[in-house]
What does this fold into?
Amino acid sequence: MNEMVTAITGAVVGALFAGILAAIKAALVSRAGINESLRSLRLSSYPDIWRETSYISRWPRRELTARELARFHSVLQQWYYQRGGLYLSHSARDRYNEVQKVLETWLQGRNPDAADASVPPPVYDALVDVGHALRTALTEDLETRRARSLIHALGRARRHRGQARRARSSMATLEKEMRAATRAD
It folds into this structure.
């Protein structure tokens, strides 16, 4: 009788364990399918924003005007709402927001008559930094530069925290410079 109870208990535990493993496998397969679908959607929309961020490239440096940055600000917003913002990861969305914040900080309160004024080097440098971070986040979303791994994911999280700190520092410096320039006018 004890052998029968042991056998039945073993069969029930085995069946339960097999059912749990099957459910986990089904969830992983489903998640992989969603990830591939999301990657495909990102592949169709990310090249547009990649191309647009060439305005704020480190190499070669460009002589940009306030008018060009206002257009760039608007183009990014249109891309976000019409093409690709829905597919950004949390970190890529944070990097996108940093680009927009730097643009907004410098553009707000600008004299419309000064639309052809050159962008000062500190503003351009801040845009280069946040633009680079955005492009890096886009490549991470697409996994075009490195394969998935837990170690890489941890390093990526650390880099994004560092980028967020640098962006906050750049914004504070830029805001301080803008206040000083406004007082000087």
